[in-house]
Amino acid sequence: MVVRTTIHEQGENESRSRGFSLIELLVVIAIILVIAALAIPNFLRAKISANQAGAASTIRTINTASAQYQASWNNGYPPSLAVLGTVGATATCNGAMVLDPTITTAPNQKSGYTFAYTPQGASISSPPAGCAAGYSSYLITAVPTTFLTGTNSYCSDDSNVLHFDVTGAVSTTPAACDSLPAVQ
Questions:
Q1: Do the domain assignments include residue 84?
Q2: Given this model, what pLDDT does residue 41 score?
Q3: pLDDT at res. 142
Q4: What is the C-alpha to C-alpha distance for residues 142 and 108, in angstroms, rounded to an integer?
Q5: 8, 52, 53, 121: which has the highest count of C-beta atoms within 10 A?
Q6: What pTM value is reported for the model?
Q7: Are 58 and 110 in contact (CB under 8 A)?
């Protein structure tokens, strides 16, 4: 009889040491949740910062492409953002091929921001043959698509000075843009 009890006790001890108890699993899950709660806000802040830096860089790229268009086609600044994109096999004044189609094709979004290009001032009175008339000035804006992709909006005009608005509002005129703080 003593032998049976010893065998039974050994089997019972072996089954207890084979897995985790419910309490141990709950403690591990709680630790993982605490780590996630600390890490996720930092990840979101880093993502927003990266999106905002990307938006500022994209506006600078559009400024450069607009100046390149003006110098290349003798047609003032481009009449639209789409004109700066790729159209056809060779560059023309209606498809300059100087910007990524992601930016120049509707909905004009990249890295959580929506970009808009608005011609300003007078149109060119005698554009080159076959070209849509360019303009004497422009306004570029970048607005976050949601509060999770960015908090600042950005704008610039033909002065090439980049401005920002911490409220995320869109600037509708060059004067409104110029009244905002400049990015240093």
A1: yes
A2: 85
A3: 97
A4: 10
A5: 52
A6: 0.80
A7: yes
Q: Mind spelling out the 3-state secondary structure of 135-184? A: EEEEEEEEEECCCCCCCCEEEEECCCCCEEECCCCCCCCHHHHHCCCECC
- The string of DSSP codes covering the chain is -HHHHHHHHHHHHHHHTSS--HHHHHHHHHHHHHHHHHHHHHHHHHHHHHHHHHHHHHHHHHHHHHHHHHHHHSSSB-SSSGGGS--SSS-BTTB---S-HHHHSTT-EETTEEEEEEEEEEEPSSPPTTPPP-EEEEEEEEEESSTTT-S-EEEEETT---EEETT-PPP-SHHHHHTSPBP-
pLDDT tens digits, 33-70: 999 888 888 888 999 999 999 999 999 999 999 999 99
* Residue 141, domain member (yes or no): yes
User: Which residues are CB-contacts of 53 (< 8 A; sequence separation ≥ 6)?
Assistant: none
**Domain for residue 163, yes or no?**
yes
Low-confidence ranges of the chain (pLDDT < 70): 1-17, 87
CA distance 142 to 161: 14
Q: For residue 11, what are its two tokens?
A: 């089997």
* Per-residue pLDDT tens over the stretch 165-178: 999 999 999 999 99
Query: How many domains does the chain fold into?
Result: 1
Whether 14 is covered by a domain: the verdict is: no
